[in-house]
Design brief:
The complex is a heterodimer of chains A (297) and B (261). Chain A has 297 residues and is α/β, with parallel strands linked by helices. Chain A contains eleven helices and 13 strands. Chain A has a six-stranded mixed beta sheet with strand order 5-6-7-3-8-9, with helices on both faces. By secondary structure, chain B is mainly alpha-helical. Chain B has one domain. Chain B has helices at residues 24-36, 39-62, 70-98, 102-108, 112-145, 157-181, 184-201, 208-214, 216-219, 230-257. The chains are: A alpha/beta (297), B mainly alpha (261). At the A-B interface, helix 2, helix 3 and helix 6 of A face helix 1, helix 2 and helix 4 of B.
């Protein structure tokens, strides 16, 4: 269980994270989605006790992270896969973590196998690792203590498609056994494939939250007609909020029923009318990214 | 391969001992391991061992016959450890930032001062080990020199204790510099440059009175050469308190106040 309540963090007067509240329940994988610089890492660092929130609080396993006596046995953390000593061998890096939290060192070899790092890779110094290998090492590091909560910042970054599939299986299995997972990404398709709940953050604020189905049902209607200009006029005339969608047509902030009725009233023949679904989610995320870009200028 | 072969079925069924805080003894062992398991740590310590042997060989081959006493050979044998081991101490702390392993270390041990205490303890253990190695190498060298100098094998116990204090405190000062600066290069440069700068200031007549209390070159020099008098001890303790205390306090303050990124 992870709980963030009204977390706010300011750097130099500017709020990097503002009033962020969400919960991750056992048995679920929560995707923490947002463009780069939206405040994902800062939020995760506050949850893990690395950064102190200006206001608000975060709890993991029913208390503050820093109050956990042996946090590694309850919470597996991967905040940055490249944060490893380059001069240390992969296996040794895991052995240190195991020893610190009091786990038998044999578990290290099991985990190396489980994350797909073979003997040769385990003997290499971490400096020679690719980003994908570092992610695998970082995930193994997070799993050593057999925790009930996983907090992973951009774990899919640098993984190839096979690696993505592997991680999806691993995290789904973890959640099915009652574990709680929070993972962040700046790419929609990464979390879309793994998470069953999404928390979307833009410019430090939560902008959307819910199960994928809930978010999709809020995503509006995608409508297309051969005569696009006429359709645009009709939608505007009916007082429906519509934007041009990528790949033609309009994304309308209304139920398909209302859009269809408006088209009929205006005498425009439609070639496509359906809930926006993935296209709507992508549009929502795209808007966030560009809004954020504008604000940064 | 089934995941269940490794992990328990239900993650929320707590096994015994899961909420036991890692003890200081275990953390110290981990820090000792961190000092030797990196490429830089390994080579630095090999260099200390090599230079220790070299110092003994040179003393035995090239020294005057009255210098070939165990006391003198041991004093030379200890110099490489006294100079280079603090760098291992600096790196033990500063690498947590330069290699960014603090993101792992502090996730496992959120009470950050305990981690620094473990590092200091590990540094002292390494200093003791280095002293033992220097004793053994010096004894071998002295035996091979088969000197006829009077009191060839005498080593006052007080001097041995002072030698141990010299190496151990040098190590702790290094750890303090690493903790205060949180970056390897500035910590190493300042660790070596500051004492030299202070000693240079000592040549200014008006400052001489102050410098002899705070300069490691002046106040700590007698530690390895003579059994110290009371007034020498006072100066040494003042200098040590300053050189160990100030960096460690700054380091602990930064560590507990600042966010880790």
């Amino acid at each position: 269980m992870i709980e963030a309540e009204k977390l706010t963090k300011k750097f130099g007067g500017r709020a990097v994270v503002e009033d962020v509240t969400f919960r991750c329940e056992p048995g679920t994988v929560t995707g923490f989605l947002g463009p780069n610089g939206a405040g994902k890492s800062t939020t995760m660092r506050m949850i893990c006790g690395f950064a102190t929130p200006d206001t608000g609080r975060a709890e993991v396993c029913g208390g503050s992270y820093r109050a956990l006596p042996n946090p590694g046995r309850r919470v597996g953390v991967l905040l940055d896969a490249s944060a490893q000593h380059g001069g240390r061998r992969g296996r040794e890096a895991l052995a240190i973590t195991a020893q610190t939290m009091g786990v038998e060192e044999e578990r290290v070899d099991d985990l190396l196998g489980r994350v797909g790092l073979d003997r040769a890779a385990a003997r290499k110094r971490v400096r020679q690792y690719s980003l994908g290998m570092r992610q695998r090492l970082g995930i193994a590091n997070a799993l050593i203590g057999d925790p009930e909560v996983l907090i992973l910042d951009e774990p899919a970054n640098g993984l190839d498609p096979e690696g993505m599939r592997w991680m999806r299986g691993l995290l789904r299995d973890f959640a099915e056994r009652g574990g709680t997972v929070l993972l962040s990404s700046h790419l929609l398709h990464e979390v879309d494939a793994i998470a069953d709940r999404l928390v979307i953050i833009g410019a430090g604020k939560i902008v959307a939250e819910g199960s994928k189905d809930e978010l999709l049902s809020d995503a509006g209607t995608l409508v297309r007609a051969d005569d696009g200009d006429a359709l645009g006029r009709v939608l505007a005339g009916a007082g429906l909020e519509a934007r041009e969608a990528e790949g033609g047509g309009f994304l309308v902030d209304a139920e398909p029923r209302a859009v269809g009725a408006a088209a009929q009233g205006g005498g425009v023949a439609l070639v496509h009318l359906a809930p926006a679904g993935d296209a709507g989610l992508e549009q929502l995320f795209f808007d966030l990214t560009t809004d954020n870009g504008k604000e940064a200028e | 391969m089934s995941a269940h072969a490794i992990d328990r079925g239900d993650l929320n069924a707590a096994p015994a001992g899961r909420d036991k805080r890692p003890g200081l003894a275990r953390l110290t062992k981990v820090e000792l391991r961190k000092m030797v398991d990196t490429r830089s740590g390994f080579w630095l310590q090999l260099a200390v061992l090599g230079l220790t042997v070299l110092a003994v060989v040179i003393t035995v081959l090239a020294g005057h016959s009255e210098d070939k006493t165990f006391r003198h050979v041991f004093s030379n044998a200890l110099q490489p450890a006294g100079i280079l081991l603090p760098v291992v101490g600096i790196l033990l702390v500063s690498s947590e930032w330069s290699q960014r392993t603090a993101l792992i270390s502090f996730a496992l041990v959120p009470e950050r001062p305990r981690l620094i205490v473990a590092k200091v303890l590990a540094g002292i253990v390494l200093a003791l080990a280095a002293t033992v190695v220097a004793l053994v190498v010096a004894a071998l060298g002295t035996a091979l020199a088969s000197t006829s100098a009077p009191h060839a094998w005498s080593l006052p116990l007080g001097l041995l204790a002072q030698d141990i204090i010299y190496v151990a405190t040098a190590m702790v000062i290094g750890i303090g510099f690493g903790a205060a600066l949180q970056a390897s290069a500035p910590a190493i440069v300042l660790y070596f440059a500051l004492p030299v700068a202070l000693a240079a200031l000592g040549s200014i007549h008006a400052l001489k009175g102050v410098i002899e209390w705070v300069s490691t070159a002046e106040a700590l020099e007698p530690l390895t050469t003579t059994v110290m008098s009371g007034s020498e001890w006072v100066k040494a303790l003042v200098a040590l308190a300053l050189w160990m205390g100030v960096p460690l306090v700054i380091g602990l303050w930064r560590l507990t106040r600042r966010d880790v990124g």
